[in-house]
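In this supplementary section we document a worked example of the pipeline. Step one takes a protein sequence of length 359 as its only input; no multiple sequence alignment statistics are reported here. Step two produces a three-dimensional model, which step three serialises into structure tokens for compact storage. The input and output of this example are shown verbatim.
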Amino acid sequence: MVPASWVADVLRLVATNRWIRWLGPLVVLIILVVAFRDQLPFLGDGVRRLRHAEPTGVLLAVIATFLSLFAMAEVMRLLLEAGGTRASPAQTTGLTIASNSWSTSLPGGPAFSAVFTYHVQRGWGASRLLCGWFLVLSSAVSTMWLVLIGAAGMFFLGARVSVWSLLVTLVAMAALSWAVYWAANHPAHLERWIRAVMPSLNRMLRRPRDAGVESAVTQLHQFDTVHLSRGRFAVVAGWSLLNRLFDAFTLYACVWAVTGTAPGLESAPDQTTLMGILLAYTTTKLAGSAQVTPGGLGTVEAVIIATLVAVGMTAVDATGAAVVYRLISFALSTVVGWVIYFLFYAGRDTRERAIELDS
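The serialised model returned by step three reads:
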């Protein structure tokens, strides 16, 4: 059996050695490209289809993709600022695009992305509680908007989607958003609850009555530095909504680029509508959340095509729109994210990264 001390030394070496931190992700990317090479022909197909696509639609799709990432970066900047950690738009945008590349490149990528984001935010001076608070609140608000967008598409199209599942998700995300917002503004209430509940919990676990109470209270009072007014929360929610709308508009622009016609509110032969795009976008994001393969390769494209056909497009146009959408929103943004990662993050101290991105 390998000694635990030896394992700890190896992990410490990986975490502190600059070259290992730089080469590690690169090796993983090479392995993934080889492992999933059968799923990559869509890149060449996408480039071929771009040659015959409407240039205006393609340009708008590219712009919308990065505006979506900038909107999410603003959510990060505002929430961190509410907790006393200041970061420039350049810093949060760089981190958002780089962490997006982690999320889309690996099976289970969102978990790796969250860890990477946490370490960079800690390098900016954010507390552990503030990093966790940002992750929970931003995710809850973003999911809430996704459900609302899907509900709108479902309602206007009369699609057969489980109303109760959407409603339960919407209520749960709205309640979670409110709870996290309330907790940040009422740490004294939470302290009283901790002091009342934890002794009983410790007794059930056969631990000393006051075990962990003061530590929990100390961590909790980090909320004293968080000042998120209703107005600022509304601004954060607005940027989160823009993140979703720009992302959905990317798919809209790709349909426009492939068909040569911008979808409107009224249906036409072999064309979808704005609400059809919103429904396709929602189902795509839900399908991609499992992410068994990097970026949901294979699964996401199939869902986009099936949904676009179901809402009125031909199979040929739906396939073209799906391929172009994935080429821009997945492949292009991921490549840009990895370039930013290797230029500003790989193998460097997080404080150095913050300074360089801000310069």
